[in-house]
Amino acid sequence: MDVFLTGGSGSTGGTVIRRLVADGHTVHALARSASAAKTVTAAGAQPIPGDLTDLGPTAGTPAWLSVLAEVDAVVHAAAHMEFWGPDQLFVDRNLVPTRALYQAAVAAHVKRFVLLSAASVSTGDNHAVTVNEDSPIGKPNIAYSRVKLRTEQELLALPHGETALVVLRPPFIWGPNMANLQGFVDSVEAGRFSWIDGGQHKVDFCHVENLAHAITLAATRGEHGLVCYITDDDPRPAREFFVPLLATRGVDVSKAGSFPRALASPVATLLETVAKARRSTTPPPITHWIVSFMGRDRVYDITRARTRLGYRPVITVEEGLRRLAEA
């Protein structure tokens, strides 16, 4: 199978490349710079010079789109990801190029289009402990997630022709060289890290190798309109996950301070209001996303991924932590 991949120079994309190549597939990876081309080549992909910004609303048709006529599947893993910023930023950088790429894939009769979304589309005013794909979504509480949800909805409503659209929703992605892990390390070192309710609430997460496995399954057997949560299937209290995870980076959060959720939520409202009024480009130390992520139990049911994709985690949490500690 030939696969066109975006986001290949990132940690998630690189893992996806290696997984696809190991399974005997050929990967054509979009690369917006010489450095990105070198990275995807080292992972085993054939670099395709180009940039998703070439797909802006006033742009023409970039030459690199011609590769879609030669592939069986598109894996769209690239995204501008921040937990702070206005909706329009994510519309321009994520929704607009994603929609254009999907429409181009449909026009080229690509067999499958795998969209990497996020479990956070259901993180907001939906307070259910266990969530599956049929649960009410509610309203996501950060722009990144709101636009991710809007992207899912818009693409699923578009004509799809012969192209099957498959949507995967991982929660917190972890593993080697992940930027979000470094973000937690930076937060601790800057004295901005605090538990909520002592870190007792259950959280769900997804090792990058498990995600790469799920993406490969989706690209080879996913049916149109299939939406799946993808996790390590091992939810545990936030403290039991993040203490050993951050310890692999030499950071001790076992004695970090804690806010009760009842206090953290109004504090987040106040700090976000002030930050927005000042047009701050960096988030405050406590946000509604952090309160939602670490201040309540949230487990994602992956029954659909198991039954419809044949997904099973290929790496355990303990093995992932061991590898990180040894890296």
Automatic annotation (TrEMBL):
GO terms, molecular function: aldehyde dehydrogenase (NAD+) activity
Protein name, entry field: Nucleoside-diphosphate-sugar epimerase
Boundaries of every NAD-dependent epimerase/dehydratase domain copy: 3-224
Transmembrane segments: none
Database matches in PANTHER family: NAD(P)-BINDING DOMAIN-CONTAINING PROTEIN-RELATED, PROTEIN YEEZ
GO cellular component: cytoplasm
Superkingdom of the source species: Bacteria
Organism: Paractinoplanes abujensis
Gene3D superfamilies xrefs: NAD(P)-binding Rossmann-like Domain
